[in-house]
From TrEMBL:
GO MF annotation list: DNA binding
Lineage: Bacteria, Bacillati, Actinomycetota, Actinomycetes, Propionibacteriales
Protein's name according to its UniProt entry: Helix-turn-helix transcriptional regulator
Domain HTH cro/C1-type: 29-83
Organism per entry: Nocardioides agariphilus
SMART domains: HTH_XRE
InterPro entries associated with the record: Cro/C1-type_HTH (IPR001387), Lambda_DNA-bd_dom_sf (IPR010982)
């Protein structure tokens, strides 16, 4: 059987590792929800997802489908395009070390 490779090399300190897309998206969704002073349950209900699932998305533990991402963003009155732009800007301004964001479909 083949060798199992970790997703994040352990030799790179955690502070220098590039964050995962789902972590950046989750953080931006949480920032928007908190800025609007809304509860997880309120946004989750409008998006048609469980509160637990929305919490996992915000914490970067789940990688939502485009349909779910659209529903959650819409519940916060954002488009997926606008959310993506915010995430890209936040990731660059936070550290300046990640450069351009490359997404794969």
């Amino acid at each position: 059987m083949g060798e199992v490779l970790p997703l994040r090399p352990s030799s790179t300190p955690a502070s220098e590792q590039e964050p995962l897309w789902r972590e950046l998206v989750g953080a931006e969704l949480r920032r928007e929800r908190l800025a609007r002073e809304e509860r997880l349950s309120d946004v989750a209900e409008r998006a048609g997802v469980s509160t637990q699932y929305l919490s996992e998305i915000e914490r970067g533990l789940k990688d939502p489908s485009s349909e779910i991402l659209s529903a959650v963003a819409g519940a916060l009155e954002l488009s997926v395009r606008k959310l993506s732009i915010r995430v890209a800007r936040a990731s660059v301004s936070a550290s300046g070390t990640y450069g351009a964001l490359c997404l794969a479909a």
